[in-house]
Specification:
This protein has 378 residues and is of the alpha/beta class. The protein has helices at 2-23, 34-41, 45-52, 63-76, 82-89, 107-120, 134-146, 169-172, 195-208, 226-240, 260-274, 287-299, 333-352; strands at 94-99, 124-129, 151-155, 176-179, 188-193, 214-218, 249-251, 281-284, 309-311, 328-330, 361-364, 367-369.
Length: 378
């Protein structure tokens, strides 16, 4: 009787095993092979492989045969082995995307533009955040090249300094686009905004509102955006007889943290107020600096924009959410990402056709966005 019970129990366990397995860890997916599709469709493995891999010989195979093979593949749930295909074709359909600091709000809309365009082009982005560290940049670059990315897009934030290792990419024949900086390396393309024109639009806006006593918080001296923006200010001031008081000009300090410009903007504005030099408007290097300046002004009992207008640069996401909403110069960040993808796509095509990669340098136009932080001087 005990034996019968034990046998019955074993039988019960065997019957329940599929249910028990279903409740546990999922099984590895079943891989459908070319041979199984061949058996289902009634054609040879060679013919099926040619059709499913869209090989050059596929153009000689009748459409009825192709459709029959494709229906069989769909029925069985066949998925191509992209890794094996990439080994055969020497293509990975991946693009390395290197960001210097993911926390920088400047990067987010650019990445959205990159991802959207790569998706439409059937490329997979491999994203790396190098934390503003040269050693991490070099290591990630090496890893991306080891994985045979077909192109590289580097999003350089305002802390970026030229990294000479990028010059080695010319030897690797990897199409590369830099967003936010223009390097001297001949093979590296660039997508930048016209900083001089953007600063010109900002100072013109304040001037037309009647402001003549204007304070400036410039960018760090080693940042490449700083010089063209200040050139735009000086050229406009000279052309319109606007005097720039050197006591009202401050410089952001060097920093390894892109968010530090908020604190720096706050402290520098406090220093401007302590100098007792009157000003009715303040032009900040970027939006984060402007946010800091507005907080310092509010703390000092100075209302924005009633007593002091403030303008920024970039138009990051929070600019429209601030109270008052920030007037700023918008960089077309999503478009910059899309432009970079377009450039490297052309480079990838050139590599496939065994042609020389031609570096492209695109400069996009900024746009003045007028909100509530600036007003006509009464």
């Amino acid at each position: 009787m005990m034996l019968d019970t034990g046998a019955a129990l074993c039988c019960s366990v065997r019957q329940r095993r599929p249910q028990i397995q279903a409740l546990g860890a999922p099984e590895r997916p079943v891989v459908v092979t070319i041979r199984e599709v061949a058996k289902e469709s009634g054609f040879s493995s060679t013919t099926v492989s040619i059709v499913l891999n869209n090989a050059p010989l596929a153009r000689y195979i009748p459409e009825t045969t192709k459709k029959r093979i494709e229906r069989a593949a769909k029925k069985l749930g066949y998925r191509p082995n992209l890794f094996a295909r990439s080994l055969r074709s020497r293509r990975s359909h991946t693009v390395g995307v290197m960001v210097f600091d993911m926390t920088d709000p400047y990067c987010t809309p650019i990445l959205r533009g990159i991802e959207s365009s790569l998706y439409q082009a059937s490329f997979l982005p491999i994203l790396t955040d190098v934390h503003n560290e040269r050693s991490r940049f070099e290591r990630y670059l090496e890893m991306l090249l080891d994985r045979r990315v077909e192109a590289l897009i580097v999003v350089a934030n305002w802390l970026f300094v030229e990294i000479d290792v990028l010059g080695d990419l010319e030897k690797s024949n990897i199409p590369t686009a830099m967003i936010g900086r223009e390097l001297q390396a001949g093979s590296i393309s660039s997508v930048i905004v016209d900083n001089e024109l953007g600063a010109h639009a900002a100072i013109e806006h304040l001037f037309l509102l009647g402001h003549r006593q204007i304070a400036f918080v410039r960018g760090p001296k080693r940042i490449t955006d700083t010089a063209p923006r200040w050139k735009g200010v000086r050229n406009y001031a000279k052309a319109h007889g606007l005097d720039i008081d050197s006591e009202l000009v401050m410089d952001l300090p060097e920093s390894s943290d892109p968010l530090s410009s908020f604190d720096a903007g706050y402290k520098l504005t406090e220093e401007l107020l302590h100098r007792k030099r009157p000003f009715t408007a303040l032009m900040a290097f970027d939006d984060m600096t402007a946010f800091g300046a507005i907080r310092a002004l509010n703390k000092a009992g100075i209302r924005v924009p009633e007593q002091c207008s403030v303008i920024g640069f970039d138009d990051i996401a929070h600019s429209s959410l601030l109270t008052p909403a920030l007037t700023t110069v918008r960089q077309p960040m999503p478009e910059m990402g899309k432009m970079a993808v377009s450039i490297v796509s052309e480079g990838i095509s050139a590599v496939q056709e065994k042609q020389k990669i031609i570096a492209q340098h695109r400069k996009l136009m900024p746009k003045l966005v007028i909100r509530d932080s600036t007003r006509l001087l009464s």
